[in-house]
Amino acid sequence: MNQDSSINIKKVIGTLYTIGALFIVTYIVTLSINLNEKSAATAGSIGDTIGGLANPFIGSMGVIVTFLAFWVQFQEMKDNVMI
To answer: How does pLDDT run across 7-46, given as a tens digit for each residue?
Structure first.
């Protein structure tokens, strides 16, 4: 495996960690907000909207990471096959 592809994988993993950290910070900030019954209903619909918008991105990241895992395995198998 060459150096260039390992650097790209490190960038992808770093980006995924950064996005995950942003979600965690958002979650902690959301927990710190005091809600009453009226604002809780509004917050619920806002949370549903955020979840509906975030889930495709989270799912796409899972697909990309799975593809990268298979791609690395494919490259290693191709390099180690004795023909």
So the answer is: 688 888 888 899 999 989 988 887 777 766 677 677 778 7
| Tens digit of each residue's pLDDT (9 = 90 or more) over 61-81 | 999 999 999 988 988 888 887
> How many CB atoms neighbour CB 38 within 10 A?
8
As a whole number of angstroms, the distance between CA 12 and CA 9 comes to: 5
pTM comes to: 0.47
HEC readout, the chain = CCHHHHHHHHHHHHHHHHHHHHHHHHHHHHHCCCCCHHHHHHHHHHHHHHHHHHHHHHHHHHHHHHHHHHHHHHHHHHHHCCC
Instruction: Tokens 């895992």: give the residue.
Output: 69
